[in-house]
Amino acid sequence: MGSHGVNRKRRMSRGATLVELLVAMSILSALLFGLSMIYFSCLRVYLRSAWKLPPYDEATMAVDELTRRMQDGMLIDSFGDDWLIVIVPQKDSNRDNVLVSDGENLSLAPGQRLAFYLSNDTGSMEATGNTLWMAVADPGTENFVPRKKIAENIHPELNPEDPMTGQTRPMFHYWPDEVRLWGVEMWITSTAEVHGEQLPQTAHSEVYLRNL
Questions:
Q1: CB within 8 A of 199, min separation 6: which ones?
Q2: Is 13 in the same domain as 112?
Q3: Domain boundary among 12, 28, 51
Q4: Which of 36, 51, 66 is the last residue of a domain?
Q5: What's the chain's Rg over C-alpha atoms?
Q6: 88 burial class (0-12, 13-18, 19+ CB within 10 angstroms)?
Q7: Is 15 helix (H, G, I), strand (E, B) or coil?
């Protein structure tokens, strides 16, 4: 009686047979294969979408940099379709704005002039190209020195059309009125080659001078 009970326990607690292991491995392999197929299918869809993404970097980076530089301006000196010169306040050694008095009122002292324009790799204001530069002229001088390359592959001819005029929108448009709060509207279009295809991307923004 006791030996029969021991035998039954041994039979009930025996390990999995080879056939059972093979079946379990087959099921697990099928599951892993199915999951891998789903994963790689999703990956292919993602990569196809990523390859077609437009080149946001240059256009958006340019608008961000222009906004940061212009918003401290006190006056737009002059501008054209693809260039603009802004006057920024003079700074003291603590980077605070310098104030001057006319006997009755205080006003900001004009400082450097910042020019934003298209040129080639040299940054010369006399050259033409598709690189957006910033040049700086110290107060009282007309000598603009190229200071920073902002973005490359900039193509204003690819800017969207203005529905009011039917013409291509300019890179810069200054609105010197109280309605637009003396804002500078910007349309920057860049191109980039993505897997053999030239893709354009336009970034649009408007910045308001904070030191009028």
A1: 52, 54, 55, 191, 192, 193
A2: no
A3: 51
A4: 51
A5: 33
A6: buried
A7: coil
Q: Are residues 71 and 137 in the same domain?
A: yes
For 43, the domain range is 2-51
- pLDDT per residue as tens digits for the range 139-162: 989 999 999 999 999 999 999 999
Tokens representing residue 158 in the block: 């690819």
In this structure, of 116-120, 128-132, 149-153, 179-183, the range with the lowest mean pLDDT score is 179-183
Same domain, 142 and 199: yes
- The answer to whether residues 154 and 172 touch, using CB atoms and an 8 Å cutoff, is no
Question: How large a percentage of the chain has pLDDT more than 70?
Answer: 84
- Rama region for 88: left / alpha / beta (φ>0; ψ in -120 to 50; rest): beta
27 — pLDDT class (breaks 50, 70, 90) = confident
155: nearest Cα among 134, 129, 175, 194:
129
d(CA 120, CA 140): 27
25 & 98 share domain? no
Domain count for the chain: 2
- 164, exposed or middle or buried, with CB in 10 Å at 0-12, 13-18, 19+? exposed
136 and 114 belong to one structural domain: yes
